[in-house]
Write a structure and sequence with these properties.
8 helices, Outer membrane efflux proteins (OEP), alpha+beta
Length: 416
């Protein structure tokens, strides 16, 4: 459940699933991916209509012949003397023209290849979206468990600070009684200051990690979860990276095929419907009739021999197909045992956690024993501080392994 904390403009997150849900709606990368999928879908739909490439060009013109040309006609046409000419003006001043030329391509092989490219590209964008979502969830898991671990580490450090402070107070009391040297007091104080530095560094690391998380999802959050025990997840058979490389290869193959088909002739249906109004009075003169001229036909367009640009494009697409095929084979090999490797890593971390838990119990027992011996004056301060450092590190290592195991579980589950 997501609880909005309005006073600090934060969203409280109590589980990794809560963080996933928040990212699904707010993460900038996923928003962009959804928009890219919409664009790919529109491109695919447009490619179907572009097979015939229907066009309807419309041209209109208004011409005012401010001064009509003068033509010389033999005068004998008008009954004049042979060998003489008469000046005659032909035409009308106002010419209004409207032309509609519907066209469509009946056979355009190159566009058939473009349709296949658009279809493959749409599938690619879908899988890219799934992979983006998986990668974001893996990053969220890393940040989430790191933040929880740092919070627990802070609590451990603060707890050990209190112990170090009590040791410092005890050493001061013994120094007043003359039981220890001033150098022992200095060592206890130095150890106490070191614990303060560790707490401050922990807070800096926490703030930096939280900032990375908030930048990823675009929201202010407050992490309030805990790391629960992890069970061995099912074997991951994530084939999306292979599918993406396969589609990359198919896209390159389709682009190569489209480039070759683009060198073939295009058969088009062409037509024209023209209307003209001529007048000496005005444009669109209703007193003058419209003169019509129409035609329909077929047109074959072929660059023969094909131009250099088309030949170069076909060659480039062939090379791209070869590169994509090699990348596909490489991905097949690299992801073949990925699921098994993740299972082996999970088992390794789980065994390490059990070992570290035992070490933490032993270091806790050692510290309690060493503290009792120090109070009795049986061991020096240096030995007690070293045992306390070992206890602190054992506690931090155990919780770090818990966080690592939880993250490994989340990564495997994201690949299912």
């Amino acid at each position: 459940m997501l609880i909005c904390i309005s006073s600090v403009a934060q969203i409280q997150v109590t589980s990794l699933q809560d963080l996933y849900q928040l990212a699904d709606t707010a993460a900038f990368s996923l928003k962009i991916q959804r928009q890219e999928l919409t664009v790919a879908k529109l491109t695919k739909q447009a490619s179907y209509g572009n097979i015939l490439n229907p066009r309807l060009p419309i041209n209109a013109s208004l011409i005012d012949n401010t001064e009509l040309p003068v033509n010389f006609i033999p005068a004998e046409v008008f009954g004049g003397a042979p060998g003489t000419f008469r000046e005659v003006v032909f035409g009308q001043q106002y010419i209004s023209t409207l032309t509609v030329t519907p066209q469509l391509d009946l056979i355009a092989p190159g566009r058939w290849g473009e349709v296949r490219m658009a279809e493959v590209n749409y599938e690619k964008v879908q899988i890219q979206g799934d992979l983006t979502k998986r990668d974001i969830r893996n990053a969220l898991g890393s940040y989430y468990f790191t933040l929880i671990h740092l919070e627990v580490q802070k609590q451990l450090l603060e707890k050990n600070y209190l112990i170090a402070d009590s040791i410092y107070q005890a050493v001061q009391a013994k120094e007043k009684e003359g039981l220890v040297r001033q150098s022992d007091v200095n060592e206890a104080q130095i150890f106490l200051l070191q614990q303060t530095n560790l707490i401050n560094n922990n807070q800096k690391q926490y703030d930096a990690t939280l900032l990375l998380l908030e930048n990823l999802i675009g929201k202010k959050v407050k992490i309030a979860g805990v790391i629960e025990s992890s069970e061995l997840p099912s074997n991951s058979n994530d084939s999306r990276e292979i599918d993406l490389r396969r589609l990359d290869m198919l896209y390159a193959k389709s682009a190569w095929r489209a480039a070759k088909l683009d060198q073939l002739p295009v058969l088009s249906f062409v037509s024209s419907f023209a209307y003209q109004n001529n007048s000496n009075e005005r444009f669109f003169d209703n007193n003058q009739r419209w003169i019509n001229s129409n035609y329909i036909g077929l047109r074959l367009t072929w660059d023969f021999p094909t131009n250099v640009q088309k030949l170069t494009n076909a060659r480039n697409q062939k090379l791209r197909f070869g590169i994509a095929s090699t990348q596909y084979e490489q991905t097949l090999l690299s992801t073949k045992n990925k699921g098994l490797e993740q299972q082996l890593e999970w088992n390794r971390v789980e065994k390490e956690l059990r070992s570290l838990s035992e070490i933490r119990l032993l270091e806790q027992a050692n510290f309690e024993f060493a503290l009792d011996q120090f109070n009795q004056g049986l061991i020096p301060l240096e030995r007690l501080l070293q045992v306390q450092l070992n206890k602190i590190q054992a506690e931090i290592n155990e919780h770090a392994a818990k966080a690592s195991l939880a993250l490994q579980t989340a990564i495997i589950n994201n690949g299912l």
